[in-house]
Amino acid sequence: SGPFTQAPLGYAFNALEPHIDATTMEIHFGRHHAAYVTNMNNFAKEYSQLGGAPVHEILAKLGDVPDTIRTGVRNNLGGHANHAMFWQIMAPGGAKAPEGDLKAAIERDLGGFEKLQIEFNAAGGRVFGSGWVFVTVTAEGKLALTARPNQDTPLMEGQRVLFGNDVWEHAYYLKHQNRRADYLKGWWNVANWSVIAERYAAAKAGTLTI
Predict the structure, then answer these.
(1) What is the mean pLDDT of the chain?
(2) 129 with 120: CB under 8 angstroms?
(3) pLDDT for 161-178, tens place per residue?
(4) pLDDT (mean) for 3-20
(5) pLDDT grade, residue 83 (50/70/90)?
(6) Non-local CB neighbours of 195 within 8 Å, separated by 6+ positions
(7) Which residues in the chain belong to E strands, given as ranges?
(8) Which contiguous run of DSSP H or E holds residue 55?
């Protein structure tokens, strides 16, 4: 218990099959993400100020966190924020391709949906070891592609994440072993563009947090 909580997944562990298997989802959500939340609540017992600030604000001001727990907060709160976003932008239903204003922004800033997929997958493949690949969004709606190691996130630079994909081995190894490229290619089948479009609108409205 504590100020940090893990929202319900919102769909069954097997809902994203065959692209992400049920066992991976159960372990990823119920152990990996849950551990980040537990660790953050333990840090909050030591440093109560953590429980009084929004997640994105803490990550943007990691320099204010005491040295003794800063690395732990960076890793665990980054992991919590990344995964909270990740579960939200996947689903068995929803639009299967970007539409409307989001589609126009992808065409304007990222060269179109097909080019985005190619370059996003390539960026995810280049992550050495563990990390994430993201599309960021500004308050003006401008998009950019970026990657981060470990559980780092663009939130740490005060940016906003439109969507991202987890390329830690725990996200895909049970099904794909070392074939990260296969996982990245298949992942697009579970990206929920209805939710991603809502996040895009929220970013432009100034209400998107994590």
Answers:
(1) 96
(2) no
(3) 999 999 999 999 999 999
(4) 96
(5) very high
(6) 88, 89, 91, 94
(7) 131-137, 143-149, 160-166
(8) helix 55-60
